């Protein structure tokens, strides 16, 4: 049998989406940890796997692939017996799935990732914080959540595009929103609080993907706890 | 026969890619002009077509779709007789095409579009110029061109992914680079000049898609000429 290797760091939201998809569909894989906070994604060895120096990437036999949406589509197409709802074969449903995945790049992903980066994470990558860029990304993030609430979650089903069952897009977008757990609780509540449908949808995706969802997100929550501990220790009371 | 309507403004790079694809493949369509500088994309009528208020969008019979990559894939799949090189059926070639299209969103597109917006176009949309954001986008743009030159154009063929014939990705990415004609010539030469393979590839895509390429880009060049004329008129000599 051809070996599937997934190069991932579970603190990365697209990496989690790919691992979650494999777990849910009984796809066997070997997980290779690429610690992005230690810069392993920048190593010469990893550049041989993904020259773009990002996670996730896969190697399936001789075939190398990066970009999480392309990976999800490949896995849904290459492995037999994957239920149709993940990546529908129907021309129109598939086109809508592509439209949503494309939209994600410049909207929810750009807003959520950019806000976290410029507000909190930049120093971990040797870049200064940038409040102006953070504010602009927050605006994109809130507008994106509004679009999900008022457009992408329209229809009869509980999932994106009004589907009755989740697709690869639900995995990608919910993984992104889970990253907002890195924010302070007040800030996160202020951002996500107004969007009731979004909150219900996150719960529905979690419920539809347990116990894998919590298992795969455990690493993220550990990283967040560690980060908050470090912050607390570095806040020396003023004298 | 089901009517295909393309809602487009040819000054928009993804709109041009969709129109070019249809012209090259003999797909009949009705083009509905959505003048983005006049804000027609924000009108209630257009929101019925594309609630995201962007061009391009299509309506094919009853089916509505937005996001240019999703549209290109849909058209390549829905119309009979489209040559395989545009969107290969082979699992591995198709996966690489998806990977490249996904990469484009957060790299070449983000860099090129952002640089133009923050350096030149923002006031047309009622937003101030932002030199800091422009500099960051320029960095992304140059890094993206380097990736195209050193990675995506590797291989024996003249086109992206080392293909012998262009794919929908070549149309999307070259349309994006053509937008840089809006820059001052010196600035554009400084950005694109170091990348000889990129320059040759642009010529190869043009040659492979004439006479449609020049025809579809004429509107862009007219808009640029008009913009430069207005700039010249507003630069009153100092007294």
From TrEMBL, chains A, B:
GO BP term, example: toxin catabolic process
CDD domains reported in the protein's UniProt record: GST_N_Theta
Membrane-spanning ranges: none
Gene Ontology MF annotations: glutathione transferase activity
Matching Gene3D superfamilies: 1.20.1050.10, Glutaredoxin
Pfam families (alphabetical): GST_N
UniProt record similarity statement: Belongs to the GST superfamily. Theta family.
PANTHER family: GLUTATHIONE S-TRANSFERASE T1-RELATED
Protein name: glutathione transferase
Lineage per the UniProt record: Eukaryota, Viridiplantae, Streptophyta, Embryophyta, Tracheophyta
């Amino acid at each position: 049998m051809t070996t599937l290797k997934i190069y991932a760091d579970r603190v990365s939201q697209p990496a989690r989406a790919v691992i979650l998809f494999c777990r849910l569909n009984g796809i066997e894989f070997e997980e290779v940890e690429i610690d992005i906070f230690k810069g392993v994604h920048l190593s010469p060895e990893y550049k041989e796997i993904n020259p773009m120096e990002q996670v996730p990437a896969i190697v399936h036999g001789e075939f190398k692939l990066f970009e999480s949406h392309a990976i999800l589509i490949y896995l849904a197409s290459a492995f037999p017996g994957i239920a149709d709802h993940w990546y529908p074969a129907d021309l129109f449903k598939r086109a809508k799935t592509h439209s949503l995945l494309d939209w994600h790049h410049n909207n929810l992903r750009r807003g959520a990732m950019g806000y976290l980066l410029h507000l909190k994470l930049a120093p971990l990558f040797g870049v200064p914080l940038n409040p102006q860029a953070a504010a602009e990304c927050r605006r994109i993030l809130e507008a994106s959540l509004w679009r999900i609430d008022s457009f992408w979650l329209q229809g009869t089903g509980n999932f994106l595009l009004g589907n009755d069952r989740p697709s690869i897009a639900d995995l990608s977008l919910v993984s992104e929103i889970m990253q907002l757990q890195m924010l302070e609780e007040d800030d996160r509540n202020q951002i996500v609080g107004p969007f009731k449908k979004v909150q219900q949808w996150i719960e529905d995706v979690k419920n539809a993907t347990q116990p894998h969802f919590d298992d795969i997100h455990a690493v993220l929550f550990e990283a967040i706890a560690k980060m908050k501990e470090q912050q607390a220790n570095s806040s020396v009371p003023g004298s």
